[in-house]
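Write out the 3D structure for:
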Amino acid sequence: MRRNLRISDLGDLVNLPLVAVLATYRRDGTVLLSPVWHEYRDGGFSVCTANDDIKARHMRHDPRAVFLLAESQPPYRGVELTTRPTFTRDDFRETLLRVAVRYLGEAEGRAYVGSASDDVVVRLVPGQVRAWDFADAP
């Protein structure tokens, strides 16, 4: 297993339409794991959600988050980042459209954007990064 890699060492992993997992913290300290669509752009991940979604509420109360993206086929590349999310509405529609089209295709992605309650982009810029792959495994 290769460890201590950079995100750039993972090839196209961050550009694949894989569902990632976002960990946020409840008021009692327990973790909520949420499957999320994402986009990697400008050195960080963007996740679109509703401003009043439980994930967003958790991150406003406890500004810690862990984002995990990993593939289930060899070479089993993955990246985990521990970060402090920021929220923005800048370019929200454009971001949501890119993400939805990436996961659903052009027609369904556009339809999703037209009906989505999402209204905020959560930016997850790497703080602590743990990246790996099994490219050297037999």
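The chain is about 20% helix and 35% strand.
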